[in-house]
Design brief:
- This protein is of the alpha+beta class.
- It folds into three domains: 110 residues, Butyryl-Coa Dehydrogenase, subunit A, domain 1, CATH 1.10.540.10; 104 residues, Butyryl-CoA Dehydrogenase, subunit A, domain 2, CATH 2.40.110.10; 163 residues, Butyryl-CoA Dehydrogenase, subunit A, domain 3 (Up-down Bundle), CATH 1.20.140.10.
- The protein contains 14 helices and ten strands.
- Strands 1-4-5-8 form a four-stranded mixed sheet. The chain has a four-stranded antiparallel sheet with strand order 2-3-7-6, with no helix packed on it.
- Helix 1 packs across helix 4 and helix 4 runs parallel beside helix 9.
- The longest helix is centred in the middle third of the chain and has 37 residues.
- It is globular.
- The chain starts with 6 loop residues before the first helix and ends with a helix.
């Protein structure tokens, strides 16, 4: 029995698998072509307790912790869903944690509870057109004017940006690019707030992505999350769970592709023999399986420590050869993400190759995973940014 294989989490897996089989698989291809999932899916997931996993019951969630969220993410993909579906349905996983952590009852009642009930959709807006991973360089500016902020700027690559009822938005509250950030909840329909065009993407087709524009948008001070100029720290503190979610999507996608490729190679015959009977194919599948399972084990190990009290990370990292004393567990989260993404990239490529011409068709599930996998080394901090974090953890 592993950390994600307790009796309770087995039940959670069964619940998730049943949800995917009943509510997702009959419609996923249609959602891929429509470019979004229906709002009703959020309500359905909320009613059975999946949408609120990982959020405390005191704010309207279903309870559980990071490991429970990992179980749900993993099982959605292993059951035939996709990382794009996870991104679309669980965008609140990056839109709400800052509000929950700040503990503002008003914001929790207005945004957190309805979102976890499936009646609202939230998004997180950090990335800007002229800067990706440079969070400190954000230029969207919020000028305090009485009991409102006046916001000007733009955001891009915003997941669920088209469907979102509100956007947790990173703004600069001193000077543009100064790094003095705050987080504001900006509602759709606020004058001056424009949701731009739908961005067409290589993958994650069922997850809508948009550009956002803010022109003299007046946002009540009451919509600020936490004290002014504490947004940068709040964003950094939540990156660990976002990156572990992406790592989970990566290794789970790899596992699913191993299953698909193994099934295909058993059923597909060439020159009078099943593909799976050939030693070359057997060794290829064995290597795919090994990489996927190794990534899973490492991500679980890191996630288990992130789920413990935050202080544990410093002592854990400091005990590693070459680590800097006090360097938080963010270093190992970066390594876990890179390890899982590398495994996923290689495995999905091999899986599609083993499928031959069929793997190149939209009818093949492995084709969708091939496209969806490419974003995992970009979102939540690129592979190169992760390497920079790792190097810093080594004292370089």
């Amino acid at each position: 029995m592993t950390i994600v294989d307790s009796p309770e989490r087995r039940q959670l897996r069964e619940l998730t698998r049943a949800f995917v089989t009943r509510e997702v698989l009959p419609h996923l291809d249609d959602w891929e072509r429509a470019g979004e999932v229906p709002r009703s899916l959020h309500e359905t997931a909320a009613k059975i307790g999946l949408l609120g996993i990982g959020f405390p019951e005191s704010v309207g969630g279903s309870g559980g912790d990071l490991l429970d969220s990992i179980v749900v993410t993993e099982e959605i993909i292993r059951s035939g869903g996709s990382s794009g579906l996870v991104a679309a349905l669980f965008t609140h996983g990056i839109a709400l944690p800052h509000m929950v952590a700040a503990g503002n009852d008003d914001l929790i009642d207005r945004y957190v509870r309805p979102t976890l009930a499936g009646t609202m959709i939230g998004a997180l807006a950090i990335t800007e057109p002229d800067g990706g991973s440079d969070v400190a360089g954000i230029r969207t500016f919020a000028l305090l004017d009485g009991d409102h902020y006046v916001v000007n700027g733009s955001k891009t690559y915003i997941t669920s940006g088209l469907r979102a009822d509100f956007v947790t938005t990173a703004v600069c509250t001193v000077l543009p690019g100064s790094g003095a950030l705050s987080l504001l909840v900006i509602e759709k329909g606020t004058p001056g707030f424009t949701v731009g065009r739908r961005l067409e993407k290589l993958g994650w087709h069922c997850s809508d992505t948009a550009e956002l524009s803010f022109v003299d948008v007046r946002v009540p001070v009451a919509n600020r999350i936490g004290p002014e100029d504490t947004g940068f720290l709040a964003i950094m503190q939540q990156f660990a769970t976002e990156r572990l979610s992406l790592a989970t999507q990566a290794y789970a996608t790899a596992q699913r592709c191993v299953e698909l490729a193994t099934r295909w190679c058993r059923d597909r015959s060439t020159f009078g023999r099943p593909l799976a009977s050939r030693q070359l194919v057997q060794h290829r599948l064995a290597e795919m399986h090994t990489r996927a399972e190794s990534a899973r084990a490492y991500v679980h190990d890191v996630a288990a420590r992130v789920a413990r009290p935050l202080q544990l990370g410093a002592s854990t990292a400091a005990s590693r050869p070459g680590a800097v004393a006090g360097q938080p567990v963010v270093t190992e989260v970066a390594m876990a993400k890179n390890v899982a993404v590398a495994a996923c990239d290689w495995v999905v490529d091999q899986a599609l190759q083993l499928h031959g011409g069929f793997g190149y068709l939209r009818d093949a599930e492995v084709e969708r995973h091939y496209r969806d996998a490419r974003i995992l080394g970009i979102g939540g901090g690129t592979t190169e940014i992760m390497n920079a974090i790792i190097a810093k953890g080594m004292g370089l």
